[in-house]
Each structure stands twice: as structure tokens, then as C-alpha cells.
């Protein structure tokens, strides 16, 4: 209860614009393949051919670009009524990744779909019983596209299509024939489906993190600068010797600061906002919406930088035993309406859980999911961040 309105406003801005996400993830995938060339005469595979698998670990430098170290396996077998063969293709590769969903601002129309593109190269071996220990060793280049669908904050579904082009391939894919050309000649496709699992302590992965635009950052910088000027003005009014300030009301707020709040924070009817002392100031701030808790994109876990708001509610309700509070959760306009209504309810419930664990009786707390906040510009990343919040209404 020892916060001035200016400090509250500063925390409001920094909390609303905090950005944190996990950069590491692992993925496991399985699917089908199709060798194109070279194959010996009379040898062929089904279209598609079963089966293939790959695993990888990916690190995102930011929410747009990253790298992945992976390994894969493909089995090539004859289709019905053709010559029999059974060969195996093992590989390790390093690829660069680009998240087109963030580059092209998919968040303007969906919160659960993105598109990754990737390219790179690696080392491979083509093996079979016919070759024995004499595996055909080669280098290869690869590229592909990967639509990604979010299933939860940590798990997403991957659908991948990739092309592999081999260099210095000496054997045909069936391994019975000898490749007649040098350089890049062997090629095959793979199509897989799998899961990507985010690693880390944050509530979302970089694939889904939406950062503010340069314009949004400039606007925040202006607002912070204005607050800094107000703080400087406050220091001029109360001086720098806070340890010598008087506290006639015994409410923990120095008289000079309390007078400053009373003189500069008036209700419309002309009465001071500080009726009832410190609790009156805080109650008025809460009622007018200055105290809110914010959430990351698609998350129901309050941002660490905005838990100060919950702390204010806890202290107020402990000091005012007859008070009750209604927590209203909100979501931005990205994603489906029904999903956002559920998410807003989860956000309100998450804040309630914290209040109860902090010692506030659950009977004094009610919650409601308000769904989408349509009052902000959904095309602005900064405005959407403000929409992802829980507000408080005292009774």
C-alpha cells in the first residue's frame, strides 16, 4: 500500500508489454517417402512408400529465425509386382528455420497456425543387405515447408514436406545399380506428421510469441518518458529526504506524498480520492482500472511483471475484511470466439487461485470470463497485449 499512483502507472506499462518465450524445442515425426531417381530398371516403390521417421532439437534465435539439428531414417521397399529390394537411408542434418507466421504477421488472423520454412544440408548413408558393410556415403541438401498447429502452450502439431537432393550418390536407391552421373543427382521426397514440444520455463514457445512493432515500442517509450517527468516532479515536491517525512495518519504513506495524491487525484464530484486514507486511494485506483494483471499470448498464467496488481488486491482485502472482489478475465480478438471466452475464464480463475493461496477466503471472490476485448485495435500488437488482462471490481 506504499505505492504512489505514478509507480503504479509505471508498473502498468512495463507489465503490459513484457515479452518472454521459450527458445528450445524438440520434435518427433513419422511418415512416408518417395524416391525419385536413381532406381534400377524394374525397381520401384509405392506412392507413397512406407515409411520414414526423424527427430530434432531446434533453437530459435528470436521468434522469427532459428536452427535445427536433426537425424532421420527412411526405408525403401518394392511395390507389388516389381523386383524386390529393401534399402535404408540414414542421415544427420543442420538446417536454418524461418517462421513465416511471425514474419508475415499471421497473428492478425489466427493465434494457432504458423508456417515454418527450412533449408540446410547434411551427411547420409544408403544401406542394404546387398551392400553389407559397404554403405553408400553421400552429402545432401534439403529444403521443406512445415505448417504448424498449436495444440497447447507447449505442444504443437507439425506437418512437413521436404525434398532431399544427394551429392556423390554412387548407388541407386534399390542399391543393386550403380549411379551413372556425378554431382547432385539422387532425390527423394518425405512427408511426415509429428509433435513439437517446447522446452523451458516460459508459458509459450518462440513460434507463437508476438513482439511489439517499432511503432508500438516508440509509443511505450514516450509514455515511459512522460512518467519519468512526473516522477521527477513528485521528487521536487516532496524532496529526497523520505526518511525524515512525517506520517500523521500512521498509514505508511508520508504526509507529503499523501497530500500530493489527494491534490492531484480528485474524484469528479470534487471529493478527494483518498477518503479512508491509503485504502481509499487504492480502492479508487482499482475501481478506475489502474490495477490490472496481464498475460502472455494464449496464456492463463499472469506475467511475473504484473503480479504487483494481485499483491495490491491481497493487501487491500486483508485490510478491509468486509470487502469482496469480482475478477473479470479478457482475451484479445485473435483466435476463435469460443476459445477466447474459455481463455478469459481461465485467466480470471488463475488470479482467483493466487488470491485464495495468499489467504483470501474464496467466498469473497467471484470470477467471470468476459471473452474478447473488442475496444482495442486488433491489428496493433501493443493494443492486443493490453487486452490480455484480468481486472478487478470491488464490492
What would you say this structure looks like, in words?
The protein is an alpha+beta fold. It folds into two domains: 197 residues, 60s Ribosomal Protein L30, Chain: A; 184 residues, Porin. Helix content is 26%, strand content 35%. The chain has eight helices and twelve strands. The strands form two sheets. The protein has an eight-stranded antiparallel beta barrel. A four-stranded mixed β-sheet has the order 9-12-10-11. Strand 2 and strand 3 form a beta hairpin. Helix 1 runs antiparallel to helix 3 and helix 5 packs across helix 6. The two termini are 19 Å apart. The N terminus is likely disordered.
Task: Please give the structural blueprint.
Blueprint: H1 5-16, E1 24-37, E2 49-60, E3 65-77, E4 86-99, H2 100-103, E5 113-128, E6 136-150, E7 155-167, E8 184-199, H3 214-238, H4 255-264, H5 278-287, E9 292-294, H6 307-319, E10 325-331, H7 337-357, E11 365-372, H8 381-387, E12 389-394
Parallel strand pairs: 10-11
Antiparallel strand pairs: 1-2, 1-8, 2-3, 3-4, 4-5, 5-6, 6-7, 7-8, 9-12, 10-12
Helix pairs in contact: 1-3, 5-6
Distance between the amino and carboxyl termini = 19 Å
Mean pLDDT: 82
In the predicted model, the low-confidence regions spanning at least 5 consecutive residues are: 1-18, 238-245, 265-275
Q: How would you classify the helix and strand content by structural class?
A: alpha+beta
Range of strand content: 25-35%
Order of helices and strands: HEEEEHEEEEHHHEHEHEHE
From the alpha-carbon coordinates, what is the Rg to the nearest angstrom? 30 Å
Largest sheet: 8 strands, antiparallel, barrel
* Number of DSSP E strands: 12
Helical content (DSSP H or I, runs of 4+): 25-40%
Tell me the overall shape.
Answer: elongated
Task: Please list the strands of the largest sheet in the order they lie side by side.
Answer: 1-2-3-4-5-6-7-8
Give the total of domains.
2
The assigned CATH architecture of the largest domain is 2-Layer Sandwich
Please report the first level of CATH classification, the CATH class of the largest domain.
Alpha Beta
CATH superfamily of the largest domain: OmpA-like domain
Number of helices: 8
How would you classify the quaternary structure? single chain
The CATH topology of the largest domain is 60s Ribosomal Protein L30, Chain: A
Amino acid at each position: 500500500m506504499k505505492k504512489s499512483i505514478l509507480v503504479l502507472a509505471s508498473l502498468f506499462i512495463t507489465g503490459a508489454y513484457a515479452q518472454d518465450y521459450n527458445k528450445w524445442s524438440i520434435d518427433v515425426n513419422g511418415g512416408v517417402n518417395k524416391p525419385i531417381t536413381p532406381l534400377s530398371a524394374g525397381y520401384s516403390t509405392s506412392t507413397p512408400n512406407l515409411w520414414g521417421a526423424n527427430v530434432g532439437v531446434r533453437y530459435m534465435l528470436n521468434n522469427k529465425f532459428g536452427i535445427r539439428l536433426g537425424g532421420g531414417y527412411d526405408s525403401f521397399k518394392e511395390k507389388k509386382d516389381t523386383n524386390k529390394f529393401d534399402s535404408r537411408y540414414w542421415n544427420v542434418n543442420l538446417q536454418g528455420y524461418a517462421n513465416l507466421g511471425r514474419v508475415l504477421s499471421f497473428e492478425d488472423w489466427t493465434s494457432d497456425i504458423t508456417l515454418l520454412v527450412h533449408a540446410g544440408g547434411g551427411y547420409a548413408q544408403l544401406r542394404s543387405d546387398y551392400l553389407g558393410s559397404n554403405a553408400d556415403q553421400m552429402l545432401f541438401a534439403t529444403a521443406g515447408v512445415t505448417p504448424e498447429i498449436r495444440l497447447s502452450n507447449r505442444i504443437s502439431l507439425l506437418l512437413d514436406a521436404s525434398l532431399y537432393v544427394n551429392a556423390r550418390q554412387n548407388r541407386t536407391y534399390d542399391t543393386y545399380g550403380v549411379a551413372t552421373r556425378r554431382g547432385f543427382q539422387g532425390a527423394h521426397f518425405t512427408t511426415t506428421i509429428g509433435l513439437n514440444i517446447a522446452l523451458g520455463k516460459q508459458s509459450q514457445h518462440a513460434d507463437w510469441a508476438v513482439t511489439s512493432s517499432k511503432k508500438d515500442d516508440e509509443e511505450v517509450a514516450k509514455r515511459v518518458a512522460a512518467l519519468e517527468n512526473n516522477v521527477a516532479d513528485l521528487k521536487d515536491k516532496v524532496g529526497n529526504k523520505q526518511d525524515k517525512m512525517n506520517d500523521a495518519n500512521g498509514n505508511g504513506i508520508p504526509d507529503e506524498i499523501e497530500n500530493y495524491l489527494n491534490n492531484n487525484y480528485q474524484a469528479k464530484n470534487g471529493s478527494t480520492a483518498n477518503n479512508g486514507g491509503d485504502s481509499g486511494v487504492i480502492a479508487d485506483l482499482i475501481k478506475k482500472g489502474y490495477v490490472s494483471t496481464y498475460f502472455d499470448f494464449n496464456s492463463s498464467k499472469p506475467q511475473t511483471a504484473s503480479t504487483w496488481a494481485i499483491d495490491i488486491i491481497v493487501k487491500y482485502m486483508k485490510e478491509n475484511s468486509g470487502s469482496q472482489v469480482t475478477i473479470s478475465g479478457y482475451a484479445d480478438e485473435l483466435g476463435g470466439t469460443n476459445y477466447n471466452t474459455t481463455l478469459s475464464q481461465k485467466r480470471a480463475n488463475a488470479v482467483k487461485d493466487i488470491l485464495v493461496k495468499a489467504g483470501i477466503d474464496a467466498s469473497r471472490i467471484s470470477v467471470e470470463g468476459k471473452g474478447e476485448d473488442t475496444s482495442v485495435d486488433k491489428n496493433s500488437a501493443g493494443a492486443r497485449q493490453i487486452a490480455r488482462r484480468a481486472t478487478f471490481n470491488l464490492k
